[in-house]
Design brief:
By secondary structure, the protein is α/β, with parallel strands linked by helices. The chain is built from 22 helices and nine strands. The chain binds iron/sulfur cluster (2 copies).
Amino acid sequence: MKQATSQTQTIQQLASQCVRCGLCLPACPTYVKSQHEAESARGRIALAAGLASGKLSFTDPLATHLENCLSCRSCEAVCPSNVEYGKLIDQTRHFIAQHYPPATKNRFIQGLEYFILHPRYLIWLRRLLRFYQLSGLRWLAKTIGLDKLSPSLTKIQHWRDFYPPIGVERGRVALFLGCINDLIDQTTLAASIKLLTHFGYGVHVPKQQGCCGALFLHQGNTADHHKLMMQNLQAFNIPNIQAIISIASGCSATLGEYHFTQPQAADFTAKVQDISQFLSQCEIPSTCTFKPLAKRIVIHSPCTMRNVRKQSGSVMQLLKQIPEVTLLEPVYKVNCCGAAGSYFLTKPKMANQLGKDTLISLLQPKPDLIVTTNIGCQLHLHKHTLMAKHTINIVHPITLLAAQLDKN
Ligand code: SF4
Ligand code: SF4
């Protein structure tokens, strides 16, 4: 039995907020699929509390139930007692990583972590992926597990330090690139700069920025999460910026909670905004108009956008600027698409069940296009469209809006 530490006390204190009402059960995707108490938030909270107090031993089934959690926080969104489940599961995973480290680790995740921590090699990875896309060497991508890549890789874009506003300056912001977005979706980053500058904002792109650290945090690796957090706090310490803007809601969620572990990060986190949130609140200059698009667009709202950033309406509000567009919202059969950071790699069975159900919900209103604000969800859902032999495109809403901007 481990001795009580401030960490085990924190876990028990967070768990003690749960009154075991069970209202979170129908919201939990893993519970809905399994109907197993230990696969619900209520069950996992009891397991985490038992482990932290020493009343339960660490066993393989206990570890599996905790690992199976998607960190989607759908439970948190419906909990009447405001249990801070996100904090609790991250602390529990850190506790497990420290005291019961796994004997082996997923090799793909290990590789990904290496590239994220050594970003100078990311550019070579991107060149390799672009070569694959242009040459059609599918065996190569299959070997490294990236054969289901969705966005077409454009020629590598080297970002300038600053993009001045077009027309009257309304303010300045800083753009968070995100490791995966900068690797495979530079189109959306360029679209964000285009819209921000046309809306009157100067855009800083700090060179020293790194990954948000979500991949590490959700695996209990708080040391590397902390290292990346400190790197970003320094990189974005830019005077007179109104907002720190991220294009992936997964990154926005992690950046916006840096203060959970680093109270000095409060100024930084107060400025974090998802690009859809920021642009939907901007007054659009009269010089910016949008070309009509007579299409049916269904909006996929990732868990991070709904449950963490609480900004599920932003995309709808923003895309309403496009004349003639029909915007649709699905009625979800499940509360998470299963991508969930690296979950789709570590727990493919559950991830695929959830991905399939989410795609069915999205296709039900017969859309022409799907938009989503998170690159992980985009890749995972794209894989499911291929598996279902469906040809529908999935794009970021900002890429769509920038393409409709009636001005270059
Ligand atoms: S809804 Fe909240 S209080 Fe109720 S069981 Fe779930 S986590 Fe506990
Ligand atoms: S975070 Fe998601 S998967 Fe995990 S317990 Fe909560 S609702 Fe279930």
